Amino acid sequence: MNHIIKQLSSRKSIRQFTGENVKSEDLELIIRTAQRCPTSINGQQISLVYTKDKATIKKIAELCGGQPQIATSDVFITIVVDFNRTAFAVEQAGETQLIEKSAEGVLVGAVDAGIMLNAIQVAAESLGYGTTAIGAIRSAPESMIKLLGLPPQTFPIVATTIGVPTKEALEAPLKPRVPINSFSFEDTYSDIKVKDGVIAYEKQMKQFREDHNMDYLQSYCEQTANYYKNIYSRKIAKNYKSQGFEFKD
């Protein structure tokens, strides 16, 4: 097993940090490395806003519902969908940009942001740091937009923490995943396998909870229902629109 496969196979979210600093040269390397990830049409419609300022990180943690894994991280990187950059490029070619007025544009931005998130985390983890993806910035998009000084045609879509993991966090067991045959299909999707996989995984997660004395841990179905029975980020459309985005064909 090569080191990349080994790293990805043992990947987990790290929510406890020692408080040690992420080295400046490491942060620069992480960002430069992540910038090489692919973007749609090479439009590079992603920008990063990072902060090491503890007061700002604390403010972001509050906006995200008081998450301690944010407040105790050493670096917080917000991944921004940036059609402001491409609008200027289109203007330089003598045209007017329309992509942010479409459903396709919203999806392009979201997909590219997800690719960037993974690239940042893989790079950081390869250097021994821990990370956690943070979607809760979308709970207060207007405040995040103001805090980060974002112009129209941009949107803060997801973020990641980076920090030095504690020994306890590193030694925490890996959570199982849904059965591989309910996740990956050859040629055609199987609804039956997906649903059978949910039932099997529910049992597996309950056993995992018992084996590791994690009474606080919800099962897969419990946790998914807890989130997806509601629309838990309700200001997305309003703030997308105020930033100049639309969702139409």
Which series of helices and strands comes N to C? HHEHHEHHEHEHHHH
What's the N-to-C terminus distance? Answer: 45 Å
Poorly predicted sequence stretches spanning 5 or more consecutive residues = none
CATH homologous superfamily (4th level) name of the domain at 3-173: NADH Oxidase
Number of strands: 4
The top-level CATH class of the domain at 3-173 is Alpha Beta
Say what oligomer this is. single chain
- Which whole number gives the mean pLDDT? 96
**Radius of gyration from the alpha-carbon trace, in angstroms:** 20 Å
Instruction: Briefly note the structural class of the backbone.
Output: alpha+beta
Provide the spatial order of strands within the biggest beta sheet: 1-2-4-3
> What share of residues are in beta strands?
5-15%
Largest sheet descriptor: 4 strands, antiparallel
Organism: Halarcobacter anaerophilus
InterPro entries: Flavin_OxRdtase_Frp (IPR016446), Nitroreductase (IPR029479), Nitroreductase-like (IPR000415)
Protein name: NADPH-dependent oxidoreductase
Keywords: Flavoprotein, FMN, NADP, Oxidoreductase
How do the helices and strands line up, and which of them pair or pack?
Layout (H helix, E strand, L loop, with lengths): L2 H7 L14 H11 L11 E6 L2 H10 L4 H4 L3 E8 H10 L10 H24 L3 E5 L6 H8 L5 E10 L3 H5 L19 H21 L8 H9 L7 H7 L7
